[in-house]
Design the sequence.
């Protein structure tokens, strides 16, 4: 993967552009506000001088104003402050003659101060950028005060250049940061991709190396390892199911085929044909039941029937099953005990739960010897319901508890009895679908199966 194609690099560039825009607006705002304030201060100084000189003229007269203007013009030249006083015919009374010749255009000044900017060269041959205050006095006199702003304009240019450099440096740093972040993330993703490739090549038997740093990549790696483990189990289970289906279904299919072939070898009576067809139908029903069980397990594991969920009374469901299987137990001369103390409302699929608990009751009744006892109970554990099916039959060895939940797995003593080894697998799938836990325990003697919701 190219660095430029990584999301983190593109996001870094977007944030860099956004940050640059924000920086430009912020710096420009500071730039314009600062220099506007400085220009306002200059205008304020010029205005104060104009007011002071105008008041001096009113109190002292023209001669004294002319002398003061001349003195200030002489003293102010070193600071680039200029003064000029002219009469109605624009004759210079005192002050700087060049400044006196500068007049604003199309301005009619009547007892007010007018500000304008211009560029002028004085005797020192230095070009000055002037800020001029221009005002009229009584008897047709005109007073002009100017201040050179070269340093201010130079500062403005330097500041603007510094602003551009700052923005350029910001963009460069953001670009470098984007490249660095992109490379770091890309290296972490490369490790993940390499680990996933190894997992795929080994049929998901290998897992990813969990990074030591506690961050989002560690969390992602842990989740991926869980996912890879589940995929590996599914692949292994699929292979096991395929092998078991091929092994367990071969016998009934062979019986059906051989029985039909033997029947067709010579002429038979109607009763013999009927008997052969009944045998084939019986074996076909076993095959159909096996496939239906596999389909139900697959649907339960895939959460297909969650759309049929509803609030149901678990106690009522167990009472209905108890009424049904109590009669079945009596036919086998078994005792049947059930204890359903009170209503328990849960969310679930009534059909699947009924089928799962029925499988447990059928197994308990099938493997419990005569005069034994089968129990169906509804208990409460920390406020949560627990369904218990127990018997005092031969039970299951504790080291086989996990194996009997696998598809088609049957204990050695049960291989010659009817069944396909899918009952407990279906029960486990339905229990997991409902967010419950299936627990097998030794009932001493017999088996105790708990469904903890």
Sequence:
């Amino acid at each position: 993967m190219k660095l430029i194609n990584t999301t983190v690099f593109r996001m870094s560039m977007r944030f860099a552009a956004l940050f640059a825009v924000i920086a430009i607006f912020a710096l420009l705002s500071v730039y314009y506000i600062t220099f506007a304030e400085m220009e306002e201060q200059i205008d304020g100084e010029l205005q104060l001088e104009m007011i002071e000189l105008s008041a001096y003229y009113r109190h002292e007269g023209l001669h004294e104003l002319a002398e003061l203007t001349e003195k200030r013009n002489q003293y102010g030249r070193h600071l680039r402050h200029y003064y000029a006083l002219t009469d109605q015919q624009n004759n210079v009374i005192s002050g700087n003659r060049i400044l006196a010749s500068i007049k604003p255009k199309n301005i009619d000044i009547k007892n007010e101060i007018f500000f304008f900017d211009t560029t002028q060269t004085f005797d020192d041959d230095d070009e000055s950028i002037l800020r001029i205050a221009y005002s009229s006095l009584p008897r047709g006199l005109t007073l002009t005060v100017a201040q050179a702003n070269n340093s201010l304009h130079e500062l403005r240019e330097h500041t603007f250049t510094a602003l551009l450099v700052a923005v350029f440096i910001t963009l460069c740093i953001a670009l470098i940061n984007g490249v660095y972040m992109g490379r770091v993330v890309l290296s972490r993703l490369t490790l993940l991709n390499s680990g996933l490739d190894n997992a795929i090549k080994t049929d998901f038997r290998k897992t990813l190396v969990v990074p030591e740093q506690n961050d989002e990549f560690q969390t992602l790696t842990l989740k991926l390892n869980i996912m890879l483990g589940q995929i590996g189990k599914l692949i292994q289970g699929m292979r096991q199911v395929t092998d078991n289906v091929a092994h367990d279904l071969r016998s009934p299919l062979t019986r059906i085929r051989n029985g039909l072939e033997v029947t067709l070898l010579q002429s038979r009576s109607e009763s013999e044909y009927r008997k052969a067809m009944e045998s084939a139908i019986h074996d076909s029903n076993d095959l159909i039941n096996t496939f239906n069980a596999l389909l139900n397990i697959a649907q339960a594991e895939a959460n297909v029937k969650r759309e049929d969920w509803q609030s149901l009374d678990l106690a009522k469901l167990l009472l209905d099953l108890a009424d049904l299987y109590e009669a079945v137990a009596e036919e086998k001369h078994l005792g049947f005990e059930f204890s359903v103390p009170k209503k328990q409302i849960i969310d679930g699929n009534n059909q699947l739960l009924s089928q799962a608990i029925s499988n447990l009751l059928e197994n308990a009744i099938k493997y419990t010897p005569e005069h034994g006892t089968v129990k169906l109970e509804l208990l409460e554990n920390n406020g949560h319901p627990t369904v218990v099916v127990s018997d005092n039959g031969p039970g299951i060895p504790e080291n086989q508890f996990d194996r009997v939940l696998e598809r088609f797995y049957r204990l050695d003593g049960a291989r010659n009895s009817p069944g396909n080894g899918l009952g407990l697998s279906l029960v486990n799938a339905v229990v997991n679908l409902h967010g419950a836990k299936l627990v097998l325990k030794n009932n001493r003697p017999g088996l105790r199966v708990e469904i903890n919701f």
